[in-house]
Amino acid sequence: MMEAAPMDWAIWSAPVHATLMFVIRDGQILLIEKKRGLGAGKINGPGGKIDPGESPLECALRETEEELRIRVLEPRKLGELHFSMSDFPDILCHVYRAEDFTGTPEETEEAVPLWVPIEEIPYERMWSDDRFWLPLLLMEQTFLGRFVFQGEELVWREVTEGVTIPD
Ligand SMILES: COc1nc(N)nc2c1ncn2[C@H]1C[C@H](O)[C@@H](COP(=O)(O)OP(=O)(O)OP(=O)(O)O)O1
Q1: The domain spanning residue 123 has which CATH number?
Q2: Where does the Nudix hydrolase domain lie (predicted)?
Q3: Closest ligand 1 atom to the C-alpha of 130?
């Protein structure tokens, strides 16, 4: 892991904005096995890219409904992830947590739902940044994560907790 940031985050901006949604209930977290798109084959939360004219919250709700057929209730934004990528446009990702939803998670063309005990989160099957911020979301702490990837290898990271997160 490099010591100094390999880029100037003060002037960084992302061409792609996206979302992730994590539902936590009864000591378990609702994850997906992603069937297509960026990160296909990995375990992640439901989510996706923000459409033109859509707010981050609207996107997180829409993507969760499209991928799992559930409607999340009272989500809270807890974090932001800034990804500098080598072979994909950079991404700013808004991260939400919720405890309740309507409907029953079901497999779709995009995702397979997975309920996992929070002590058994399969980080080895997830993007390698996740282990550095998902524990904060589980503790209901806010966070700003900045990550530099070369391909799928995480080469630099910085995670700040307890920050004020914009909507
Ligand atoms: C680089 O590290 C990442 N880590 C994590 N945890 N999640 C990531 C990372 N990079 C992207 N993501 C998330 C953000 C989004 O939820 C998805 C990517 O969105 P996707 O490409 O699937 O967007 P859709 O709009 O659903 O796809 P289509 O364009 O195919 O409709 O991954």
Answers
A1: 3.90.79.10
A2: 14-139
A3: 6
